[in-house]
Amino acid sequence: MNIFPRLRRLAAAVTMLFAVLALSAAPASAVKPPKVMAALGDSITRAFNTEINPPICPTGPSLDCPANSWSTGTNPAVNSQLQRIQARNPHRHAVGFNDAVSGARAEGLDAQALIAASQNPDYVTIEIGGNDACQPTLAAQTPTATFRSQVKAAVTDLVNADPKVYVEMLSVPDINQLHTIFTSPPDPNALLRWELFGVCQALLAEPLSTAEADVQRRAAFRDQVIAYNGALAEVCAEFKRCRYDNNAVFNSKFTTADVANVTNTGGLNEFPFNVIPVFGEGAIPYSTADYFHPSLQGQALLAEGSWNATFWK
Question: Global pTM?
Fold first, then answer.
């Protein structure tokens, strides 16, 4: 019996198997760094309240500082995804559009997606869900099914506009960490600002209470964030070129320095900041600290964590 045809067929099959395995094992290397990227989301992506140096960002009533954004920022201190993409292939002259809106919930994501689609991006980052969870009460939070459908509508419009677009879907941070790091021990600046500004009261109301109802409320809040992340993963799995971060952002541990506090946010001599006292060494007078948003250092942490989960790592 002539075994050579069998051997040739076997060799061909083995070669094909190795080729398939190579493609599946290293999908990132097969993806060309984008030339145009867009960022969707909320105040986190707008780098709200990261400013220390007024010349970096426009002054005025808005505390947005997109130059400090983890996604499309240009401040070298952040080393944003855009900057890393530019460094990977400087000859492509990659550009980024920050289409996020401070205060946005998932219901506003589709409008952002339509704007982004008009910019012809090769790559889009999405970070959404914090405001859906951070409502005055648990009852006011966006239902998970509604959240899921709103996010899916946005990704659908992106893909319909360009089936070849790559999307990175980031998990919602573990917001309960804020309660932990600023109440153990209690930080008077955090407690005062959470109360005055009504920050994320579904989680941060009565922050020092150990009553069973308050303990259960905080646990329910975290459960809702986890449910949102499950929905984000499910939506992303429906699209061939969407990558969920596998809870990288949710699992990231952050410290007090990674959050906008009275030592790392600028002063604004306007109401209400000019009447709120600040306590402790190194506190900046009239600080805009809200003890909620990522600081400049926190944005750098997000940039690193999200980059490690993206297509080009």
Answer: 0.89
